């Protein structure tokens, strides 16, 4: 660990273990810690560098944030490998990762934040309003440098408060996965109500959040995944029924059986491609399908449009996770219901390159986090 300075302050906050996740809950601030970042140096490879620039100073309505935790997402892996699946391209030397959380080290002269505030980064300029307000302009971790660094100066209105009961490792997972799931459930073209049934796919970050949010809002959940071990995690998160899609490839029909032949009200589809065929079969008349990801190599599927028309289905996609307005609301929802993200593993700062490689072969449920 590289740092310089005379003062070290250590605080502790309460937390809870999650499987392999063993949080330290030690928030350490080095007043003059080295200005370091992990930068993309070759396809799929990042290198830790001491930046030649000094620690930045915040402007009037900005704050200097000491990043404490960074959560990785499938999009980070696609960007690192210059994949055609992602809508933008990374550049060599870029700092990756969209998700981050930290502590305000120095507020600007007119900042709304104060030193010591725990915050989550809202990476985009999408502050409010509908999907068409989203832009990739200056989107951290995609078209601009991201969170795999120690220090960040960020605009006041692009930060939101970390829920008080979460560690910063947990809070770092909230934007990409949490806001995506929250907006699909409560802001999509189809809006579920208490008592309705939501079907989730897998046990990645978005799906785990969707289970948590749906159950907190009084809905029922049918969870699908590739193994009984992962389905056990889904049940612990609150899933009412589970389907192993490897042993039950026609999981759409199985979902109908579990709902008395009616079908689920909403499918949260994070797989894409051929899975949409099963999602349509699983969905009730007048129901909805939120298309939130593409995990398969083959994005195309043969769809019978008469099933969409005859089933009066609403199929909608999302991009950019959500607005700052939705981020604030989601964070308040997490705090109100005392929800805790599912974390697969936490890597130390010096292991961030290993964390990126682990993202490619992630088998444990939940999020990969780097402690900074």
Automatic annotation (TrEMBL):
CDD domains: MDR7
Pfam families in the record: ADH_N (PF08240), ADH_zinc_N (PF00107)
Domain Enoyl reductase (ER): 41-370
GO molecular function: oxidoreductase activity
Location of region: Disordered: 1-20
PANTHER family: PTHR45033, ZINC-TYPE ALCOHOL DEHYDROGENASE-LIKE PROTEIN C1773.06C (PTHR45033:SF2)
Protein name, as recorded: Enoyl reductase (ER) domain-containing protein
Organism lineage: Eukaryota, Fungi, Dikarya, Ascomycota, Pezizomycotina
């Amino acid at each position: 660990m590289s740092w310089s300075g005379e003062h070290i302050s250590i605080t502790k906050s309460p937390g809870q273990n999650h499987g392999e996740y063993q949080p330290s809950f030690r928030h350490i601030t080095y007043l003059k810690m080295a200005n370091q970042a992990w930068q993309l140096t070759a396809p799929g490879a990042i290198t830790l560098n001491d930046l030649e620039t000094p620690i930045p100073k915040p402007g009037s309505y900005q704050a200097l944030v000491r990043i404490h935790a960074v959560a990785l997402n499938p999009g980070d892996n696609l960007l690192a490998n210059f994949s055609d699946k992602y809508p933008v391209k990374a550049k060599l030397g870029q700092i990756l990762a969209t998700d981050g959380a930290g502590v305000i080290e120095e507020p600007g002269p007119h900042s709304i934040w104060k030193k010591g505030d725990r915050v989550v980064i809202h990476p985009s300029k999408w502050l409010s309003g509908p999907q068409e307000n989203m832009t990739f302009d200056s989107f951290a971790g995609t078209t601009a440098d991201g969170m795999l660094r120690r220090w960040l100066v960020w605009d006041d209105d692009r930060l939101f408060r970390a829920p008080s009961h979460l560690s910063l490792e947990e809070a770092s997972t909230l934007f990409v996965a949490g806001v995506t799931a929250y907006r699909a459930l409560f802001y999509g073209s189809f809006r579920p109500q208490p008592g309705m049934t939501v079907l989730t796919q897998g046990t990645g970050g978005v799906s785990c959040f969707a289970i948590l949010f749906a159950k907190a809002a009084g809905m029922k959940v049918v969870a699908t995944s590739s193994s009984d071990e992962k389905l056990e995690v889904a049940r612990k998160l609150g899933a009412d029924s589970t389907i192993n899609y490897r042993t039950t490839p026609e999981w759409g029909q199985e979902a109908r059986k579990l709902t008395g032949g009616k079908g689920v009200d909403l499918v949260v589809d994070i797989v894409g491609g051929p899975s949409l065929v099963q999602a349509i079969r699983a969905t009730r008349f007048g129901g909805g399908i939120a298309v939130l990801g593409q995990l398969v190599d083959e994005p195309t599927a043969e769809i019978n449009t008469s099933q969409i028309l005859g089933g009066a289905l609403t199929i909608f996609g999302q991009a950019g996770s959500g607005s700052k307005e939705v981020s604030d609301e989601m964070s308040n929802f997490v705090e109100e219901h005392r929800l805790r993200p599912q974390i697969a593993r936490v890597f130390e700062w010096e292991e961030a390159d290993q964390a990126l490689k682990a993202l490619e072969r992630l088998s444990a449920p939940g999020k990969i986090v780097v402690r900074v």
